Amino acid sequence: MGSDPDRRFRMTFTAGAEHIDFMGHVNNAVWLQWAQDIATAHWEAVADPAHVEAYLWVVTRHEIDYRGNIAEGESVIGATRIEQPPTGARFERLIDFMRAEGGKPLVSVRSTWAMIARDTGRLQRVPQDVAKRFLPAE
């Protein structure tokens, strides 16, 4: 787990028997769960603890491109990043899942997330001080 100067955050995921579908590879729903898992871990690792307490995130859209898959026992590295500043309460998160030995992404996810104020349960414009921890360095 970790991040780099471009603010990409990485995690390794290994396919267990519970992740495998009737085709013998990771089920589509598992890729979405892993996308949510890395997004949550990124938020908790990088955000100011006060922001973690004040805000929640919900997905408003997922778009997934499948170019390959993995079988039970195989691992991928998930790398997530946010390239553009938020628009109001929303921002776009990009996630690529690649084999550990490198190469092109097997699965790519583009998700739109919306910020919610924990105390009101309402959409909240993403404050600049929250966003800056996740955007590429200028």
UniProtKB/TrEMBL annotation:
Pfam families: 4HBT_2. It comes from the Bacteria. InterPro entries: HotDog_dom_sf (IPR029069). This is Thioesterase.
